[in-house]
Amino acid sequence: MVDECRVCGPPPLTRVCKILLIINVAVWAVLLAAGVTDDSVYEELMEFLALTPALAAGQGHVWQLVTSIFLHVDPWHILFNMIGLYFFGPTLELRLGPRTFIRLFLVSGVVGSVCTVALAYLAPRLGLIQSQVLGASGAIFGLLAVYATVSPNQIFLVFFMVPMRARNMAILFIALDAYFLILGRGGVAYSAHLGGALGGWLFYRWTNGRPPGSGLGRRRLRVVDDSRVIDARFRRITRDL
To answer: Is 7 domain-assigned?
Structure first.
């Protein structure tokens, strides 16, 4: 496994990561335009696409578990999520392959959504049942958890200032989310972050070995461990772009 203890930038933006980035920014732009031009259209889009636990669990709006992943309203929200996608995504896409990577992204986001719905009913005092939850944060936390697993010693500049290993960064962010969730802080779907991290990590473990309790096993996912292979993929992607 290529895992150097040094600060470096992300690899070139890969194909699936580029598509995900474009989709998220495009949907954000549409919502922004709808909010400026017609409040009724904006409200209808949000009601139909954003995750509302009461609708997803009570009225069968299960598509919201997925569509909410691609919705952002706050510009800082989408900025930080896309920064996470930019720094974690390309390396994981190259190591796991495009198909497995997109599954990882979606599974992390959906598990984060499911955890949010579950928490809304388990802890109604939080007031999540009728709330609209949106954003790719659960999916990004899934990428972070897997990145910290495959490249734990890679150093990032947290907040562009503090050098920190990927493993320690993941532990810090997950611990902070768990702390704020226990305190009952509102305004942020901490359950989606934690659920996304757990879902992403479990998906990676599942696809890299035999499922717990299964005698059949699964084909082991081939992880690229040869730096020459990674360099060759970098050059090919750069040429394609």
So the answer is: no
